[in-house]
Write a structure and sequence with these properties.
There is one protein chain. The chain contains six helices and no strands. It is mostly helical and 166 residues long. It has one domain: Alternative oxidase (Ferritin, Up-down Bundle). The protein is globular, with a radius of gyration of 16 Å. The two termini are 15 Å apart. The structure holds fe (ii) ion (FE2) (2 copies). The site of one fe (ii) ion has 7 residues, from helix 2, helix 3 and helix 6.
Length: 166
């Protein structure tokens, strides 16, 4: 599954890089819009399991962590909106459509295989960190520096969450 995850992410990144060539802020906004979806999906599945009485050992810890991650990703999204990343209707329609599909895919993926769902999102966070680092190499922005650190933290947190599952 790890090879499949890598293929999915590499393909998506290539398409986004092509569509958003020389439009960094819009691309960041789309990425942030997408980046929130897995955390919403993880929370939905955890709530669902909770409703069925399937509360595992790490349940509360994961709920708390994923809730914090959704809030943090929303802060990133709001910053990109301040910079004008969501000004165009076409970008909003594109991202919102993509995120609806991605959310439901992630709900199913996390339900079936939490470990692989975490791995896929580690790749997303890794890509986000790499993208911001590349941008900061030629543009100073202290907020994006902070966002870069958040993405690295998300990567490490996902890795830790992944290791909680056998
Ligand atoms: Fe983010
Ligand atoms: Fe993130």
């Amino acid at each position: 599954m790890k090879k499949f995850n890598t293929l999915v992410i590499e393909t998506t990144v290539s398409v986004l890089d092509f569509l958003y060539m020389r439009r960094d802020i819009q691309r960041f906004w789309v990425l942030e819009e997408i980046a929130r979806a897995p955390y919403f999906a993880f929370l939905s599945v955890l709530h669902f399991k909770e409703s069925l009485g399937l509360r595992g050992e790490a349940h509360i810890r994961l709920m708390k962590r994923h809730f914090e991650q959704t809030l943090n990703e929303t802060e990133h999204l709001e910053y990109m909106e301040q910079l004008g990343g969501a000004d165009r209707l076409v970008d909003r329609v594109f991202a919102k459509s993509l995120v609806l599909v991605y959310y439901w895919v992630m709900v199913l993926y996390y339900l079936i295989s939490p470990k692989n769902a975490y791995h896929l999102n580690m790749l997303v966070e890794e890509h986000a960190a790499h993208t911001y680092a590349k941008y900061l190499a030629h543009t100073y922005d202290k907020n994006i520096e902070k966002i870069l650190q958040d993405e690295i933290d998300h990567y490490n947190e996902l890795k830790e969450s992944m290791e909680m599952f056998k």
